Every structure is written in structure tokens, then in C-alpha cells.
Automatic annotation (TrEMBL):
CDD domains: CGS_like. One of its GO terms (cellular component) is cytoplasm. InterPro entries: Cys/Met-Metab_PyrdxlP-dep_enz, Cys_met_metab_PP, PyrdxlP-dep_Trfase, PyrdxlP-dep_Trfase_major, PyrdxlP-dep_Trfase_small. This is Cystathionine synthase/lyase. Belongs to the trans-sulfuration enzymes family. Keywords: Lyase, Pyridoxal phosphate. Its cofactor is pyridoxal 5'-phosphate. The keyword Lyase applies. GO terms for biological process: cysteine biosynthetic process via cystathionine; transsulfuration. One of its GO terms (molecular function) is cystathionine gamma-lyase activity. It comes from Haloferax mucosum ATCC BAA-1512.
Length: 401
């Protein structure tokens, strides 16, 4: 049977890992961390193409170019997203930078969701627009017509994230894919928030998918990494050049190993993240001290129907607003035991984040007000702990509001 016909629960545990060890006679069940930086080769090959060494054909020369542990991870990532190619990068940021660089040139135009991860927005403004001469238009992509209206002949790339952070806005991947297609633009989706377990943008028409593997894919808050998955050979060729030669931004063997190991439990973790997040969202929605809850799994979410249609689950991140002032918010945060105040998300442990002073502090107060990020607005990354412990911790802290 073709491996891709297996269920994701099976692919997550086994795909790509067996048969990767070059040591003769050793059939590892889990791939070792293959640390060698260089490999001896049998003879001189005047025709060797260093940028496209094929690890599956045993072509190993130098670990920046190909490495068995990274190769195993890349196979698994491709299988989980349902793509033909995957590459693992040193961070999600590096994966995004390489993907954009692979597609756009000076004079080109990018249409992007205004509600992107802050680092991606800064990259688009400070690197692509200011330094590389690429025009960038940010749109409210919850309205597909705005995406269409921003398209131009020079638009080479459309870049989306859904759901967005921390406002949990969604965009319609299938509809935007059709627009990008009409304009011959590449459509990239950052799928970090849902992981390949709950959403597969390639199957909805996207050309390329990126992940910060730092989040759900690795899942244990102990590795920084990124990934790109695509079906397009032309994009893969450019990305491979950038990963191995142009930027040298490939994932290390140890982080590749950690991520492979983390992925084995991705389906189990995602189901628990979602179950806990749904219970917490319903609890917060019914609490007097909470003015609003943003979670696509709630019927009250304005894009609940779209979420139910294009996702196979609602994920583990939600945001909510307290009915209090900054001092009340600080007191609430101080009373929590099970939710450390920390950025990032997607680990097995629950975290709480205060966007106004943390992830979104670079924005002006006016911009935060426009977006609806008040001083009492909070984001939860709901972990896989017992939900009753999380609920009683929140309940006790809410009593102080
Ligand atoms: C949606 C999203 N994309 C990309 C990134 C960047 O990933 P990394 O921190 O691995 O570079 C983040 C980080 O928070 C993120 O939330």
C-alpha cells in the first residue's frame, strides 16, 4: 500500500523513519541522531550536482546538503501535509523567509493577510518591502473580495494564516486559492496554528504550506524549527537551493530528531488540546467576568461555519477578554498556577499570553485598539493536562476579577 494511503495516526508514528540508517546490518526502529557533518564518498564524480543530492539514493556528502535524520523528518512532514516535497528549516521564520525568497523578486507584489504573526509582518515590511523592493499590500482576508481587489499583474505571492493570532480570524483557503490561480500567483499558507492534523491547505488549493515546527509539530517546547511542504517541483528546486546553499538554514540533526519524536504523538496531542480548549472556551463564555471569547469551535464565533468546513478540528488556542482594567488583569494573571505567562504555543503544557505587553507590544496603542487587542485581552495555548485542573485554576483566578 502507498504510505500516503495510511491514516495520519500511522504516518505520524512510522513514515520516513525506517531504512534511513546508513549503518550496514542495523535496522533501527527509531532513527538515531545522525551527527556526522561530513561523509566519505566512494570515488570522484565530475558530474555531481551538490544542490540536488538525493538522500533517498544514499547521496550524502555534507550534512548542510543532506542528513539522514533530517531526511526522515522531511519525508514525514510531506506525508502529513499530503505534499510531494518537504524541507526542514532552522526556524519557522527561516522557512517563511526562504519560501518568500523562492517566489518573489524585486518589483513583484505580495498580497498578505493583515492579521499575520507579528514576526512575519515585520519581515514583509522591513526585509521584503524596505530592502528588497517588493511591494506588499495587507488586506482583511476574512473578506475574500478584499483579496481579489488587491491583486495586480505583478502579484507573485498571496500569503495567509488561518486562524490568525491572537484574534482567531479565518480566511477561506479554497476561495483564495482560486483567486491566486486566476492571477498566476503562488498561494502560501502558514498552517502552524492547526498543524497538519486539523488542516491541510494543499488539499484546498494552496501551493505551499509552512509551519513553525516549534509549536504543535514538535509539541514539547524544547526545539525551534520550521518546515515547508509543497507539490510544486519548481518551488521545491528554489527552496532546496536556498535551504542548502543560498541561506544554509537547514534544521540540525538533533532538532530533526526531537521533531520526529514529537510528531509521533501529534494526533493524540491535538485531540486532547482541542477537547480541553473546547471545554475551557465554553466555561469562559458562560463566566460573568469574561466579556468575549474567540474560539472557532464555539457557535458564537463569526466564522464557525467556515472553520467546520475547512478544518477537521478547532485547535488548542483561544483568546478572551476580561471585564476589568490593567490592574485587574495583572491580579488575574498573578493568581494562575497552571498557566505560566509566556509567548509561544502548541506545547503539551498550557500557557497564557498578554498580547498588549508581549507579542503585540510593538504595535501602537491606536493600532491595538483598532484590532481589538485591549489591555485585558489574553491568549491561551491550552495544553493536554487534565481539564478539571485547568478549569479550577481559571475559576479561582477569575474570582479575583
Ligand atoms: C503562526 C506563526 N508562524 C511563524 C512563527 C515563527 O516561528 P519560529 O518562532 O519557529 O521562527 C510563529 C511564532 O510564534 C507563529 O506563531
Amino acid at each position: 500500500m502507498n504510505d500516503y494511503e495510511l491514516h495520519r495516526e500511522t504516518l505520524a508514528v512510522t513514515h520516513g523513519e525506517r531504512g534511513q540508517t546508513p549503518a550496514p546490518g542495523v535496522e533501527d526502529v527509531t532513527i538515531p541522531v545522525h551527527l556526522s557533518s561530513t561523509y566519505s564518498i566512494p570515488d570522484v564524480d565530475p558530474d555531481a550536482d551538490l544542490e540536488s543530492l538525493d538522500p533517498d539514493a544514499g547521496e550524502y556528502l555534507y550534512s548542510r546538503l543532506s542528513n539522514p535524520t533530517r531526511n526522515a523528518l522531511e519525508h514525514r512532514l510531506a506525508a502529513l501535509e499530503g505534499g510531494t516535497h518537504a524541507l526542514a528549516f532552522v526556524s519557522g521564520t527561516a522557512a517563511i523567509a526562504a519560501t518568500m525568497t523562492a517566489v518573489v523578486h524585486p518589483g513583484d507584489h505580495i498580497v498578505a493577510f493583515e492579521d499575520l504573526y507579528g514576526g512575519t509582518k515585520t519581515m514583509l515590511n522591513r526585509l521584503f518591502a524596505e530592502r528588497l523592493g517588493v511591494d506588499v499590500t495587507f488586506v482583511d482576508a476574512t473578506d475574500t473580495d478584499e483579496v481579489e481587489a488587491a491583486m495586480r499583474d505583478e502579484t507573485r505571492l498571496v500569503w495567509m494564516e488561518t486562524p490568525s493570532n491572537p484574534l482567531m480570524h479565518l480566511c477561506d483557503i479554497e476561495a483564495i486559492a482560486a483567486i491566486a490561480d486566476d492571477w498566476n500567483a503562488v498561494f502560501g499558507v502558514d498552517n502552524t496554528f492547526l498543524s497538519p492534523y486539523f488542516q491541510n491547505p494543499l488539499s484546498l488549493g494552496a501551493d505551499v504550506v509552512v509551519h513553525s515546527t516549534t509549536k504543535y509539530l514538535n509539541g514539547h517546547s524544547d526545539s525551534i524549527g520550521g518546515a515547508v511542504v509543497t507539490d510544486r517541483d519548481d518551488i521545491m528546486d528554489e527552496l532546496a537551493f536556498l535551504q542548502r546553499v543560498g541561506m544554509g538554514s537547514m534544521l540540525s540533526p538533533f532538532d530533526s530528531y526531537l521533531t520526529l519524536r514529537g510528531i509521533k504523538t501529534l494526533p493524540l496531542r491535538m485531540r486532547q488540546h482541542e477537547e480541553n480548549a473546547m471545554e475551557i472556551a465554553r466555561f469562559l463564555e458562560s463566566h460573568d467576568a469574561v466579556t468575549r471569547v474567540l474560539y472557532p469551535g464555539l457557535e458564537s464565533h463569526p466564522q464557525h461555519d467556515l472553520a467546520a468546513r475547512q478544518q477537521s478540528g478547532f485547535g488548542g488556542v483561544l483568546s478572551f477578554e476580561l471585564d476589568t482594567d490593567p490592574d485587574g488583569t495583572a491580579a488575574f494573571l498573578g493568581h494562575l498556577d497552571e498557566f505560566p505567562l509566556a509567548v509561544s504555543l502548541g506545547g503539551v503544557e498550557s500557557l497564557i499570553e498578554h498580547p498588549a505587553t508581549m507579542t503585540h507590544s510593538p504595535l501602537s496603542q491606536a493600532d491595538r485598539d483598532t484590532l481589538g487587542i485591549s489591555d485585558s485581552f489574553l491568549r491561551l495555548s491550552v495544553g493536554v493536562e487534565h481539564v478539571d485542573d485547568l478549569l479550577s485554576d481559571l475559576d479561582e483566578a477569575l474570582a479575583t476579577v
